[in-house]
Amino acid sequence: MNSHHLELLQNLQDAYASLCNLSLLTLDPEGHPLTQLSSRCPLTDLVVHASSVPFYERVRALLPSYAHIEEPIYFDAYPPVHRGLRCFLAPVRVREETVMFLLGGAVVERGARAGIRADMENPEGPYPPGPPWLETLAQVPDWDEADIARTRQHLLKMVELIEMALTAQYHESRHQQHLHLIYDLSTMIEQHESGCYEVLQRYETILQEIDFCGLARKQEGERYEVFKVFGDNSHTLLGKTFSTGEGFLGQVALTGRAGSWEHLTRDPRAVFFNAHDVAVDQLFCYPIKREGRVMALFFGGSAKSGPIYRDIQNLGQIVATLLGAQMVNQTLQREMNDRMMTMTTILEIFHSLTVVSDSQTLLTILVDTSLHLLKSSFGVALLRREGPGEIVTRGLDEEQERLFRADMVARFFAQESRAVGAGPTVLTTPWGQTALVAPILYQQDVLGVLAIGLPEQLEPHQRGLFTSLVTMAGLTIHHVRTYHEQPTRVAPPPETPAPVPAPGKQARPDRWATLSAREKQVLELVVKGLSNREIAEQLFISDHTVKNHITNIFSKLGVTDRVQAITRAYESGYGR
């Protein structure tokens, strides 16, 4: 409380001390005074200033016994020091938590005066000699039951007024805190200054009622994994998973509706938290959606018992919305980067295809680049010929190659299959694996087939990339057959000048020649689809050495990834 609020509290206390003809004092929960004593009882003043036992020390010793009271009580304040003197103690509670006490006294109850006088007259008694105890006692009236009941009602009204003021002050303060938090989080997300962890940290720090909060992200199938968490003893949840419909969090994932729960100490649905040593008595969870589908969950909770107040729920919903906006923005940014890389890759591949002069090399480029871009385990490119047809495979044995060739010939190369659809389709291979298959067309003629083993999760942009590769393949195969594989075609006249690069463009240098012999070995294995570890095992070198070679290769070829390195290798004549 600031000085202005304390001054108002002091004025209110003085007014009620006069109304009740009682000395009043306001204490914090530990027994330290928040106000000055409003003195209306001379005996109380004498007890406070002249007692053999320090007054505030006695009060602090007694308060823990009354910490959980919810209404004013009337009790022996100083037994056995000052027998017969009684006091009122009234708790002031905000949001079910005691924030201060009102102490009023001292009261001489009817029938207790004789015992108090005897103690005061006893030289060995609790009242130290010197102060005018008996004279002061004579100034204090006796209280009967009606006086006590009336004073209790007055104190209840005073407590009610204080609680109303403190509650309003609390809500105003919390409102300002929440506005600042929302503004800060919005700014952090807008300027990309912080990630989800910093947002959770700020949220948990502002809300003292919350012990922990976290984020769970949807994985493959119907599983969710906790990937961010903040709060005391909550780190054990990191990396843990649950299913849609499982427990409280799974229920929100299933329905797409927010939820809050209380009194969960013995609730079996809280087993996800209990199994990982996170105590929880209250819990909330909000879905984070993209295009109407749950993509993540924002949750939080506390081991403390009590309700989850509306302001906490409202702020949680806002934070969930902000986190959702951040996550969607990051996802869109990644997708945009993927598409930019895809476009760059397509241009590189298209350039490589334009310099190829034979169909076999062209098929090899198609299969190798498709495997890398779609991260697949096998790939096949089959070209239609009068005979059995040219074929390039990766990841298949001889029997699988034979079965695939027969299956594709039956599906796409038969006379009645000339008008097949141009789009890629998912088919099951003769040995039971699924593959993304598309005919290679040129003006409705089937020139060949490209098939790639279906990844576990095929993203829309990957499907679009596969379609683009197949389309480019049809144009390029037609070009190769027309201009390179037709022996009767007339060559250009000798006097035709060599092509000159367009203004602003330079012919690509022979970067292949800049590679060392070992770097060429490594690149050849990269083209074949081997991983760093597989390359290391085959060349009997360390993984670290392979990584250094690949870094040098990328630098010399002027590329940034394996797909671009593969296409640059074919441009330089690899495989011919």
Description:
It is a single chain. By secondary structure, the chain is an alpha+beta fold. It has three domains: 3-171, PAS domain (Beta-Lactamase), CATH 3.30.450; 194-333, Beta-Lactamase (2-Layer Sandwich), CATH 3.30.450; 341-487 and 510-571, Beta-Lactamase, CATH 3.30.450. The chain contains 17 helices and 16 strands. The protein has helices spanning 3-20, 42-50, 55-62, 113-121, 133-138, 145-190, 196-206, 247-255, 271-274, 310-355, 359-374, 398-413, 460-483, 517-527, 532-539, 543-557, 562-571; strands at 23-27, 73-76, 85-94, 97-109, 142-143, 212-218, 223-231, 241-243, 259-261, 282-290, 293-302, 379-383, 390-394, 425-428, 434-442, 445-453. The strands form three sheets. A six-stranded antiparallel β-sheet has the order 8-7-6-11-10-9. α6 packs parallel to α10 (310-355) and α10 (310-355) runs parallel beside α13. The longest helix has 46 residues, at 145-190. The radius of gyration is 41 Å and the shape is rod-shaped. 32% of the residues are buried.
Shape: rod-shaped
Taken together, the total number of domains comes to 3
What CATH first level of the largest domain would be assigned? Alpha Beta
Spatial separation of the terminal alpha carbons = 84 Å
* Major β-sheet annotation: 6 strands, antiparallel
Q: Can you tell me the residue ranges where pLDDT is under 50 for at least 5 consecutive residues? A: 487-508
User: What is the architecture of the largest domain at the second tier of CATH?
Assistant: 2-Layer Sandwich
Mean pLDDT across every amino acid position: 80
Tell me the CATH topology of the largest domain: Beta-Lactamase
